[in-house]
Design a protein that fits this description.
Helix content: 40-55%
Oligomer: single chain
CATH architecture of the largest domain: 3-Layer(aba) Sandwich
CATH superfamily of the largest domain: Type I PLP-dependent aspartate aminotransferase-like (Major domain)
Strand order of the largest sheet: 4-10-9-8-7-5-6
Radius of gyration: 23 Å
Largest sheet: 7 strands, mixed
Bound molecules: pyridoxal-5'-phosphate
Length: 471
């Protein structure tokens, strides 16, 4: 008996949506169909997806940040083929395999001096869960502070640190003592820290939900307050880490010195799930304090050698192809071209983000006609305008984007880090055309926005946005 993947795919071609509706998530199936995003993708390569008709889609989501090196990267593929063919002694478990050690060494070498140890796991949320446990064990305190708009994953601990009630609703009670602090509010942070029971403050150096940023001085003051209170400063770099913002870690832009770092997405090479929590020897020893406690925090797949190979191969491509430097350079190109667009288009207000993590903030225009149309769309549903652009970007121009968060008119771009000026130009000229059209004659826009708000999402709650996703 052999297993033929190509035969299976051929035999069952076209059943995707039926299978999902029947066995996985019928609601998601409906959302995808309603948006008209129901394509049968057959191939992914670099910055592009291809459907069964050969149509090409520019991927400005990169699997929520997973495809830093683009899809089907030849070096990662080759590394994984090598690993499979080598019949590696994977997960002997009562063992210390070489590959996890090598990847940990690579990660520690790329981290600030206080970072000395690595805990491997399978996802971003799992890395965050580890950070909560290690912070509690190390400080012998229980409370974790997090920011408004925060997103750290959807497992129970990480969910408690989520800045959106939509995600939390119906799942309580969550982790006791998890407390939200308004993003950038030093006084509010100090007030909580003063209580003396805070184990850690967890932050995303640039927030994924909405692409919110702070100034360097603000970050340094927040971090100093945390350290002065004897608490730990956790930088969640699951999305921003590994070059996304034009530095290996986003906290480098602000000169921060985290006690704990979490990473995941890009380390996978786009193939094998992996997560990691990095911290100091001191924090580590508070958990693994004796031989009896050597596995007190663990997970079966922690040193999965396929994931380790994907991680090592990814980092080697980062070095060989100067991926971080490229992402940084492209950040300046994005900014220049988008700011030029914002000067010409009254719907486009502000450009946020760094490197290849961009937030396009839309808002009410000034001219009377356009303002009226904008209001009509927003009256149908809060922050509907950006959703109204995401759909034609996909249909007319074959560009996959997402709305950055609930109730904010922000489109987020997370292209593969390898995306270059060609991809930037494709996006910028499509948006330029779309906004020109919307300003001149946005009857289509109003009709489309209102119809979508009323029809597609009337059964969901008014505040939830359609392509909003857990990333
Ligand atoms: C900053 C941040 N932390 C944690 C997570 C959770 O990662 P995962 O979806 O792999 O559990 C995400 C996911 O988008 C994230 O952006």
């Amino acid at each position: 008996m052999t297993f033929k993947l190509s035969e299976l795919l051929d035999q069952r071609h076209g059943e995707n949506f039926e299978l999902h509706a029947q066995y996985i998530n019928p609601q998601l199936t409906k959302v995808v169909k309603t948006l008209g995003f129901d394509r049968f993708y057959v191939r992914g390569e670099g910055c592009y997806l291809y459907d069964e008709e050969g149509k090409r889609y520019l991927d400005m989501l990169s699997g929520f940040g997973v495809f830093a090196l683009g899809r089907s990267h030849p070096v990662i593929k080759d590394a994984l083929h090598q690993a499979i063919d080598a019949d590696l002694p994977n997960m002997a478990q009562i063992d210390c395999a070489l590959l996890p050690g090598l990847l940990a060494e690579q990660l520690v070498t790329r981290s600030p001096v206080q970072i000395e140890r690595v805990f491997f796991c399978n996802s971003g949320a799992e890395a965050v869960e580890a950070s909560i446990k290690f912070a509690r064990a190390s400080t012998k305190r229980s409370r974790i502070l997090y920011n408004s708009h925060a997103y750290h994953g959807l497992t129970m601990g990480a969910l408690a640190l989520n800045g959106s009630s939509d995600f939390k609703s119906g799942f309580g009670p969550l982790l006791p003592g998890a407390t939200e602090v308004p993003f950038g509010d030093l006084d509010a942070l100090k007030k909580e820290l003063k209580k003396g029971d805070v184990a850690a403050f967890i932050v995303e150096p640039i927030q994924g939900k909405g692409v919110y940023e702070l100034e360097k001085e603000q970050w340094l003051a927040l971090e100093a307050a945390v350290h002065a209170a004897g608490a730990l400063f956790i930088c969640d770099e699951v999305q921003t880490g590994l070059g996304r913002t034009g530095a290996f870690y986003a906290f480098e832009h602000y000169g921060l010195s985290p006690d704990i770092i979490t990473i995941s997405k890009a380390l996978s090479g786009g193939f094998i799930p992996v997560g990691a929590m990095l911290t100091s020897d001191k924090v580590y020893r508070s958990v693994y304090s004796s031989m009896e406690r050597a596995l007190v925090h663990s997970t079966t797949f922690k040193g999965n050698q396929m994931a380790m190979v994907a991680g090592l191969a990814t980092l080697s491509v980062f070095d060989d192809d100067h991926i971080v430097e490229h992402a940084n350079a492209m950040g300046f190109v994005w900014r220049k071209k988008l700011e030029e667009l914002a000067r010409r288009h009254e719907f486009l207000h502000v450009i946020r983000g760094r490197g290849q993590m961009i937030g396009l903030v839309f808002g009410a225009p000034t001219s009377a006609g356009a303002k009226r149309r904008y209001r009509a769309i927003e009256a149908a549903r809060t922050a509907m305008f950006s959703q109204t652009l995401v759909v034609p970007l996909f249909h007319r121009y074959g560009i996959l984007t997402q709305v950055a968060a609930d109730n904010v008119n922000v489109i987020k771009l997370l292209p593969p880090l390898i995306a270059g000026e060609e991809e930037i130009d494709i996006f910028v000229s499509a948006l330029d055309e779309l906004l020109t059209d919307a300003e001149k004659n946005s009857a289509w826009l109003v009709e489309f926005g209102v119809t979508m708000a009323k029809g597609a999402f009337k059964k969901t709650r008014k505040s939830s946005s359609s392509t909003r996703a857990p990333s």
